[in-house]
Amino acid sequence: MNVAIFTDNDFDKINGVTTTFTAALQHVPAGMRLRIYTAGTLPVDAPDYLAVRSLSVPIPFYSEMRMYLPRLFEFISRARADRIDVVHLTTPGPIGLAALFAAWRLRLPIVGSFHTDLAAYTSLLSGSRRLGSLMREYMRWPYGKCARVLVPSEHTRQLLIGAKTDPCKIDVWPRGVDTALFNPSRRSNALREQWHVSDRRLGLLYVGRVSREKGLALLAPIRDRLHAMGIEHRFILAGQGPLMPELRGRMPDAVFTGALSREAVADVFASADVFIFPSRTDTAGNVVLEAQASGLPVVISGEGGPRENMVADRTGRVCRDDDPDVWATTIAGLVRDPARRAVMATAAREYALGRTWEIALRPLYRAYRDVAVDAAAATPPDALQVATHGVR
Predict the structure, then answer these.
(1) Based on the domain organization, do 339 and 287 belong to the same domain?
(2) pLDDT tens-digit readout, 255-311
(3) Beta strand 55-59 pairing with 62-69
(4) Are 318 and 368 in the same domain?
(5) Both 161 and 111 in a single domain?
C-alpha cells in the first residue's frame, strides 16, 4: 500500500506536525510505503519525501511564516507515478487543497488528520471572532471530504463534533514521544551554568513557537509575581516567533535560545527543572510529552489537548484559567517543594515510557488500511481497472 501525506510543513521546520510524521516514516510497517508531499523554496525528491518547488506568500496575521501555492498537476503526476492508494490530508491550507484535487482526479480515498485549530488562531491573531467563525465553517469542507478524520485528543474530537463533523468518522489518534532522545540522562551541568540556574534558582522552561496564540503573554506577569513572592527562578524560552521582541523587553533576565536542532532541544529539556506550557489552543502539545520523557514536571493550561498528555497532580499541575496569580502560585508550590518535584519528575518519565511512537502510531496505520479496503469494496471492477491502468 502506498500513501501520500500532504502537508504544508516542510521538514526544515521542527514542530508537532513534522515530529509526528517523521516518527510515522520511521515506524512504518512492512507492506506499507509512506511519502511526504509538500512544497518548498528548493525541490527535494527523496524516496519518502517530495518537496515541489513553489512560490510562497506570507500567512495572513502571521507574516513571519509563509504558505506555498501548490503546483496541482505536478502533485497529480507524482502521485500517479508513485501508484498512490490513499491520500492523507493534514491541513485545510493550500497543500490540503492539492490533496483534495489529487484524490478527486485519481479516484482515491482520503484520510484526514487535524493538527492545528486554525479557527482559534485566526480569532486570536486577528482579534475578530467573526473571522474565526468563518475559518471554522471553511474547515468543515475539506474534512467533510475525508473517509476518516484522525484527531490528537478527545478535546479536539469534541471540537469537530461541535463544528458539525460526523462523529462516526472521527477517531482519536494520540501522540507519542521518542523516549530514547528525550531522556533525563541528557542533563547538562554546563548548560545550567550557562543559564545561571541551580538547585536554588530553578530553570522554568517553555519550548515551542514564541507567539501570542501559545498563551505566552502570561509569562511576564507570572515572572513578576514569582519575584514578588521571593521565588528565585529563570525562564528559558526555546524557539522562535513574532512575540520575541516584546518578551525580551518584558523579561530581560530570561534566556532566549532561538531555534534549535532536535538534539539540542532534548538537552534543553533535560537541563531544566519545570516545564511551563500556557497554551489554550493546542490540539495535542507534543512538547508536553517530550518534557515528561525528559523527567520534568509540567504545568499546563486546563484547556486544549495537552491536558490529555499528562496526569494531573501526578506528573504535573493543571491551571484551569489564565490568571497569572494562579499560575505563579502553582509554580511556586513546585519550586518550594523539591521532594514533591522529584516524585513528579520520576512519575513523568514513567508515564512517558508508556507513550511510545510504536504504540501511538497504530491508529494511523489502521486507518490507512481500513479506508483502502472500504474504497476497494465500493469500487466497481471496471472503474478499478481504469483507476489502476488508465488514470494511475
Answers:
(1) yes
(2) 999 999 999 999 999 999 999 999 998 988 999 999 999 999 999 999 889 999 999
(3) antiparallel
(4) no
(5) yes
The 10s digit of each residue's pLDDT in 150-171 is 999 998 898 888 888 889 999 9
Would you put residue 32 in left (φ > 0), alpha (ψ -120 to 50) or beta?
A: beta
pLDDT tens digits for range 28-84: 999 999 999 999 888 999 999 999 998 877 766 555 567 788 899 999 999 999 999
3-state secondary structure the chain: CEEEEECCCCCCCCCHHHHHHHHHHHCCCCCCEEEEEEEECCCEEECCEEEEECEEEEECCEEEEEEEECCHHHHHHHHHHCCCCEEEECCCCHHHHHHHHHHHHHCCCEEEECCCCHHHHHHHHHCCHHHHHHHHHHHHHHHHCCCEEEECCHHHHHHHHHCCCCHHHEEECCCCECCCCCCHHHCCHHHHHHHCCCCCCEEEEEECCCCHHHCHHHHHHHHHHHHHCCCCEEEEEEECCCCHHHHHHHCCCCEEEECCCHHHHHHHHHHCCEEEECCCCCCCCHHHHHHHHCCCCEEEECCCHHHHHCCECCCEEEECCCCHHHHHHHHHHHHCCHHHHHHHHHHHHHHHHCCEHHHHCHHHHHHHHHHHHHHHHHCCHHHHHHHHHHHC
Cell of 169: 468518522
**Pick from 311, 279, 282, 286: which is nearest to 297 by CA?**
311
Tell me, yes or no, whether 293 and 382 share the same domain. no
Number of domains in the chain: 2
Distances, alpha carbon 145 to alpha carbons 38, 56, 103, 104, 379, in Å:
20, 26, 10, 10, 17
Looking at the structure, do residues 217 and 251 belong to the same domain, yes or no? yes
**Residue 391: predicted pLDDT:** 43
Query: Are 136 and 36 part of one and the same domain?
Result: yes
Q: Which range marks the domain in which residue 221 is found?
A: 184-353
C-alpha span between 223 and 217 (Å, rounded)? 11
Domain of 139, CATH number, reads 3.40.50.2000
207 plus 170 within the same structural domain: no
Q: What is the pLDDT of residue 65?
A: 65
* Pair (143, 222) in one structural domain: no
- Compute the average pLDDT of residues 171-181: 96
